[in-house]
Amino acid sequence: MIKNNESPGDDEYDAEAGREIAWRARSVGLAALDMDDAELVHSWRSDPVAAHQIGMWPRSLTAVRERIERDIEDDDRDDFLICPVGGAPVGHVALTHQNIVDGTADVELLLAAEHRGHGHGRAALDALVDLAFGELPMYRLTAQTHTDNAPALAVLTKCGFTREGVRRAACFHRGRRHDLAVFSLLRPEWEELDRPRAWEA
Known about the structure:
The protein is α+β, with helices and mostly antiparallel strands. It contains 6 helices and 10 strands.
């Protein structure tokens, strides 16, 4: 878990958004998820498009609060709100199932419906990848999504992830089975990416 015990400076606190930024990139900052964010996350998870594309089902606000509380206590994951510079949070991104010995982790991304298609997903995923490889000893990142989730497939590809294959009928949602596309990004591949790193913001 990223912790900042110092008083936030100009680069670590977004006054307009009212968020302490744990990790800053060029167009977004990542702020640690907190229990007070439960209603916001609940509203995003309740969106039917997101529910279908990610393969999740509606949860009560109480259940979301309990899930966030468990996740905050989990040392094997880091959850962040995606905060555009000077703006309110637009989504959630996470580095989960972290295995420091093997250097592996999974990535998750969820954007609010009204903020899709504006580049926030790619910016947030790039920032999370830079955190995993630039500050943490990760070697392999994995992501999964429905094979018909075109926006997510595009974002993963633009961020340098390679499609490894398909987990056939691995997800049950809305009464039928869905295939999951499996993507990965390795440290040497990240090192070859021709883009600024988050700390160069």
